[in-house]
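Forwarding the complex inputs:
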Amino acid sequence: MEANSRGKKKGILLTYGIILIIVMIFCLTVGPAKITFKAALALLWAKIPGVGRLVSIDQYPSTYLTIIYDVRMPRIILAALVGGALAAVGTTFQGLFKNPMADPYIIGVSSGAALGATIAMVAGFSKIAGVWALPIAAFSGAILTTVLVYQIARVGNKLPIFNLLLSGVALSSFMTAIMSFLMILNSRELSQIIYWTLGSFSGRDWSQVQVAAPIILLGIGVLWFFARELNAMLFGEETARHLGIDPEKVKKILLVVAATTVAGAVAVSGTIGFVGLIVPHTIRLLTGPDHRILLPGAVLAGSIFMVATDTFAKVALSPTEIPVGIITAIFGGPFFIYLLRKGKTGVF
Amino acid sequence: MKKILAFLLAFLLALSLAGCNSGTTAEPPAVNQDNRNPVEEAKQDFPVIIADSYGREITIVKKPEKLISLAPANTEILFAIGAGDRIFGVTDYCEYPAAALEKAKIGDFSNPNIELIIEIEPDVVFVAAGVQREVLNQLEEVGIVVVTLDAENLDQVLKNISLAGKIVGNEEESSKLVAQMEARIQAVKTKLAAAAATPTIFFEVWDDPLMTAGPNTFINDLINLAGGSNIASDAAEQYGQFSMELLLERDPEIYLINDHAHTPKDVMTRPNYGSLSSVKNEKVYAINDDLVTLPGPRLVEGLEEMARILHPELF
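Prediction (whole assembly, two chains):
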């Protein structure tokens, strides 16, 4: 029975994985540029080593190659990475804090990143650091906030979860206030700051993927590795201790890894909301609370959701792009309410 | 929820700030067409009755001595028609001409300080449309005369200059300025008549996210007047994000940026931009965006510069 259920759950992961690959390939063929489905497939096929020679792509302009390989592909991969990262950290925090309201930003990572990005925009850092000004500032803001929240919440060697939540909320509002203040003082940068906080993958290229991928993949890997500990923590720190787990150590490791993972995601995409909150809940309704399945399931589902919504954000009002954070909220919110009403059971 | 609302509000504000004219209810200022008094007679009589950009009828009882301008373009207009010495307050953003920097500051564009304005006891306050509607109402409630000057195209700017001249009693100067501007526009048009082609243009308002000027913007208007074609003229917003892949697909012949954020070299070294014809042919140019976005007298300079960039062979 147990083995059967495990096998079924592995089947779920495999299904999600296949859906993700199909969605990614499909989204490579969709976009504002009028490249036909056939042309896009031919251009993709042509680059596969060995069999690529079988199709001819000479009839297509060279900008098509740039669009598919240097615009769409890095953007889709980045969306998948960020969606996965947000879902993984959302899952971890919901389990760690035993709080259904927890999302990747609950300990203030997003406000820290947003404040960092705002300062960079207002002070014109991009004149010095170019395209990397915003990612660096956002990443530093996120990490700095985590360190601060950790220091405020810490009692001696212990890290009480409630302290962590409360100091996260407090510091978050404080930094949002500073950000709003900076925005009022610099209303010329207002729209850029707001666009950033809404989140977008617009204009991303391979360099962002190269920077974000190692941080995010390593982060997700470590979080998954701690799935068993996370399961134990769900039953309380006492129980975890009886199972031979050091809760304080696990909390610290998870906190650091999760915060770094989100910081990596936020740095390249802005603060995209809802994905990290609703994807873990949705997958939990489908797979149950075992983090060994839930976490990778949520990662794959987060990636699928993000790639699909980003493609929608690109084409819905073409040639104008919509910040993807708006789309995730518009689709994510009602869908989650539907699931909640349909299930009629508690999420936890 | 409150946070989201606040963001949305700020968002709207920012948009209307970016496109000062976005709130204008396209009513052309109903300037009195039957005015048979030749402008040369100069010494005009007050009171004058005018209609502002909202079409509101306003009576100016005597020649105003104290003026306040709440928009950079209005400040430029007032200085250009020789009423600079009567300006007693401007916004933090009024940086042109240099003399504007010497004037008392009464706050920023979207949020001027009402108390400071009342304290000055101005005879006329010049505002822009859109975000400043609220300010207009507040000032009128305390009995201050407020005139909205805003424009969506070059013709309306010329009309606003005439209107401002009438309001401040400097009609001679304003007519002269309008005539000069019209002559310069005509000169550009005459030269452009010989243009062999209409190059395609992309105007980068911001790089991250990539934003451009769509329809109903001065940038779009000037590109057309300067004999070009804006590849974003079908965009859904005035100032919105633009898709990178469409930029590559539509492949503009000329890439324009504003000179305060980047240099053409920045653009040419960006990843993915290498395949653009404008980058390959080194046709990336910077332009002072005040010249092409502020609905004031310098738009003509913007037009001339744009025309020089688009058709160097003719200028």
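Confidence is low (pLDDT under 50) at residues 15-42 of chain B.
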